[in-house]
Amino acid sequence: MAGSVRGSQLTRLLGDWQGPGRRRSGPEYAQLAGAVRSLLTDGRLALGVRLPAERELAQALGLSRTTVTAAYRTLRESGHLTSRRGAGSWTALPGGHRVGTSGLWAPIEDDEIIDLGQAALPAPPELTDAVAAAAEDLPAYLTSAGYHPMGLPVLREAVAADFSRRGLPTLADQIMITGGAQHALDLILRLLVAPGQRTLLETPTYPNALTAVLASRARVVGYALGDAGWDGDLLLSTVRDARARLAYLIPDYHNPTGHLMETALRERLPAAAHAVGTDVVVDETFADLRLDGPELPPSVATFDRAARVLTVGGMSKPYWGGLRIGWVRAATSITARLAAARVAVDMSSPVLEQLVAAHLLGAREQVLAARRAQLTARRDTLVAALRARLPEWRFVVPHGGLSLWVELDAPVSSVLARTVEELGVRVAAGPRFGADGTMERFLRLPYTRPEADLVEAVERLAQARESVDRVPVRPLRAPAIVA
């Protein structure tokens, strides 16, 4: 179950489904069924959502109930809706439509391949000096055993100071250092979510977060992001209806869409979650990567009055992925429990890497200024190239983060990714960020590569798109059973 959607909310999601720019195909009920089906396959409407009653939707859309009844029947016949008499109707996908999101997807170590599969930057030049400075600090730590489950005090204090600088007063005891933000999420899931409990995720979302939730054997509840980001009323009603044990959200330059959650919704979210016993994990991995546009709103934890918000972050995106340092900010009772839980996994993070991270955070302004200037130029280059070569593709230019979330002109994301890889470009197809066969109309395109690579990648994407239209798509073969 992923909550319910009211008639007014579904009307907003459907938008101008009968507008003059829409292609008319068949009777009105068939058009309505097709519009709902498109919301599902594009991931704009989550699976397992209870749709409004036929009478309510008919009133909201200004249609006859007969039209809505026929549309619902059509959706049931195509497998996009399941119903129980007297209980309601829930969104679904036809049997067999499922895309797995787990499994290692390693970077390609080949200079001939333009790898846009990962939204990550190479190390900044300041890293070398940070390593040298950390090496000088290291002897003071060599007389101890080297196990620091909470993390080195010097790094915890630096991270806490950064939260305080952003307007969220934080003590070092509220910070636990981890082996990256992904490790932080894994520990939180181990501590707070039992198998079978619900975890609320946005769709699309960060694929490795979805993989971690599935590995914890939690039940995934989806909330679908719209073209403009979060629909506040719909998100809060989903939180109330789902009554999930945990919600994982990316409000700061969301991965992969780049959306930025407005302050008003951040303010309402913690109280709504607390009312139904839901802890909220806020992923701030991209919070330092504002490029332009509005100032970054206050952290969601700023509005937390019940210690139900856990904030995770790390060095991977703004600094370097090879520096496996992340953190959790939470109530001191929670960080102490997380530290106790982690000793069964890895004891503590490497001392030398923590010292390197502390020195890099000391050079924060210098590093981030250079990152932002570089990313702004690369983002604008990618935007210009796409508009010139693939003008039919749609996207919202993000004000921060590392990638564009591009809506294609047809649901060909997976076949396009396979085709363009033969031309020397690797991209992440939309289904990696969704679930159960959705997101086939989308690609994530990072702007982390040099500008010349981005222009060349778009040129090859345009060639691949033309090739997809010329060559019939071969159906995927059924996987072989190996015993």
Brief account:
With 483 residues, the chain is an alpha/beta fold.
Describe this structure in words.
46% of the residues are buried. Strand 5, helix 8 (207-215) and strand 6 (219-224) form a beta-alpha-beta unit. The chain is built from 15 helices and 13 strands. It has helices at 7-14, 28-41, 54-61, 65-77, 126-137, 153-165, 181-192, 207-215, 232-242, 263-275, 332-342, 351-362, 364-389, 413-421, 451-470; strands spanning 81-84, 88-91, 114-116, 175-178, 198-203, 219-224, 246-249, 279-283, 309-314, 326-329, 403-407, 425-429, 442-446.
Span between termini: 34 Å
Number of helices: 15
Overall helicity: 25-40%
- Based on CA inertia axes, which overall geometry fits? globular
User: Helix and strand string, N-terminal first?
Assistant: HHHHEEEHHEHEHEHEHEEEHHHEHEEH
Distinctive features:
483 residues, alpha/beta, globular
Furnish the topology, listing elements before pairings.
Elements: H1 7-14, H2 28-41, H3 54-61, H4 65-77, E1 81-84, E2 88-91, E3 114-116, H5 126-137, H6 153-165, E4 175-178, H7 181-192, E5 198-203, H8 207-215, E6 219-224, H9 232-242, E7 246-249, H10 263-275, E8 279-283, E9 309-314, E10 326-329, H11 332-342, H12 351-362, H13 364-389, E11 403-407, H14 413-421, E12 425-429, E13 442-446, H15 451-470
Parallel strand pairs: 3-12, 5-6, 5-7, 7-8, 8-9
Antiparallel strand pairs: 1-2, 4-10, 9-10, 11-13, 12-13
